[in-house]
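Last lecture ended with a question: if I hand you only a sequence, what can you say about the shape of the protein? Today we answer it with a concrete record. The protein is Protein from nitrogen regulatory protein P-II (GLNB) family. Below, first the input exactly as provided, then the predicted structure, then a couple of comments.
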Amino acid sequence: MATKLIIAIVQDKDSNRLSDIFVDNNIRATKLSTTGGFLQSGNTTFMIGIEEERVDDALALIKDASHARDEFMTPPVNMDVSMEGTTAFPVKVQVGGATVFVLPVDKFTHF
Ligand code: 2BA
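The predicted structure:
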């Protein structure tokens, strides 16, 4: 039976509920505290080793538990231009519900 690795990046606000959902559905996952490269604020990455047949079910649970939200970020002031009258206004960024990768797994062992 082929194993896949799901890597799912979700917002911190959704992560505890998603952990509970994984436990309830007998999905084994490792939760990592991560940082988004763009917003440079915390998010949560789940690593899930799972049988290929169950990948779609896991993706449906992730989709259901993850919500898109608007965040505001203040862009850095460009120091190349004159500072006169330059104010960095917060910019609205929509952060997605979940960013998900599904990878093949060459070998999966438990010792
Ligand atoms: P962040 O890198 O902090 O990005 C947060 C949100 O900012 C993104 O939401 C997107 O709406 C926006 N954003 C990111 N880069 C941008 C850029 N160069 N210009 C304009 N807006 C930009 P999502 O796309 O939903 O991504 C949420 C989080 O998922 C990301 O947090 C990052 O941690 C991860 N992620 C997204 N795409 C990825 C990828 N291709 N590879 C690895 N991680 C990814």
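Comments.
1. Residues 3-104 form a domain with the Alpha-Beta Plaits fold (CATH 3.30.70.120).
2. The pocket of 2BA is lined by residues 9, 36-39, 43, 93-96, 99 (CB under 6 Å).
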